[in-house]
Amino acid sequence: MTKDQIHHIQLTETFVKKTLESAEGGHDWFHIERVYKNALLISKKEDVELYIVSLGALLHDIADSKFHNGDDAIGPQKAREFLFGINVDSVAIEHVVKIIENVSFKGGNVARKFSSIELDVVQDADRLDALGAIGIARTFNYGGYKNRKLYDPSIQPDLNMTKEAYKASTAPTINHFYEKLLLLKDRMNTKTGKQIALNRHNYMEGFLGQFHAEWNGEQ
Ligand code: ADP
Ligand code: NI
User: Fold this and answer.
1) Rounded distance, CA 210 to CA 117, Å?
2) If you measure from the C-alpha of residue 46 to the centroid of ligand 1, how many angstroms do you get, rounded to a whole number?
3) Which of 61, 64, 138 best tests ligand 1's pocket when mutated (most atoms within 8 Å of CB)?
4) Tell me, what CATH number does 115's domain have?
5) 39 to each of 99, 174, 214, how far by Cα in Å?
6) Cβ(143) to ligand 1 under 6 A?
7) In terms of C-beta density within 10 A (0-12 exposed, 13-18 middle, 19 or more buried), how is residue 97 classed?
C-alpha cells in the first residue's frame, strides 16, 4: 500500500469511531473493529486489494438502514462523501460503495447485484461477527434494544421472508437464529471464512440445545 492509502485508512478509522460513538452495542465501533480484524485474517489467504477490503470493512455499517428508518441509501451516500472529502480516487470510492450496498443479509432472499473478491471477504468478515459467542451476545442485545421477547414457542420462524418482511419482523429473538444465523455457514464466500463459521455455528447449536432444554425444565 502507498503512504497515501495508509493515511486514508487511518482517517477512515477516526471518522467511523466518531460516527458510531452512540451506536447500539452490536453495531458499534467494536463491531467494526472485529469485522476489520476478521477481514485482515481472511485476506491473508486471498488475493485481494487490502486497501479496498480495509475501507469496505471500516465503512460497511456507517449508517445501517435499520437505524435510519429503513433507508438503504444513507450508508453508501455517507461513505461516498467522506471518501471524496479525503481525496480517495473515484474507482476506489465506487468499489467501496458497492461493497457497502451489497454486504447485508436482508433475509437472504435478495440476489447480489455486484461481485468482487473484496466484497466476498468483507461479507464473510461481517457474517463471522454474527456467529458464535459474540453473535449470541449481539443478537440478544439487539432484541433487548428492540424490546423483543426472548422466545415464544407459538411464533414459528419464517424462512421465506422478503427483504421488506425481514426488516419489519418483530419476532422473538430466538427466531433470528433460525431465520438468519444458522443459515450463514452455508453462505460463506471464502474457504477461511467457512472454516471459522463452522466452529462458531457448532457453538450456537450447543447454545440452542441448552436453551430449549432449560425452557422445558430439563437439566
Ligand atoms: P444484515 O444487515 O446482514 O441483515 P444485520 O445488521 O441485520 O445484518 O444483523 C447484524 C446482527 O444484528 C445480527 O447478526 C444480530 O445479532 C442482530 N440482529 C439483526 N436483526 C435482528 C433481529 N431481528 N433479531 C435479533 N437480532 C438481530
Ligand atoms: Ni456489520
Assistant:
1) 37
2) 27
3) 138
4) 1.10.3210.50
5) 13, 27, 36
6) yes
7) buried
Whole-structure pTM value: 0.94
Cell numbers 451506536: residue: 23
- pLDDT tens column, 93-115: 999 999 999 998 776 777 788 99
Nearest in space to 162 (alpha carbons), one of 105, 107, 112: 107
| Number of domains the chain is built from | 1
Q: What cell numbers appear for 106 in the block?
A: 436482508
Read off the C-alpha cell for 25. 452495542
For residue 30, the enclosing domain spans: 3-215
CB distance 60 to ligand 1 below 6 Å: no
Ligand nearest the Cα of residue 103 is 1
Spatial separation of the C-alpha atoms in residues 22 and 200, rounded to whole Å: 28
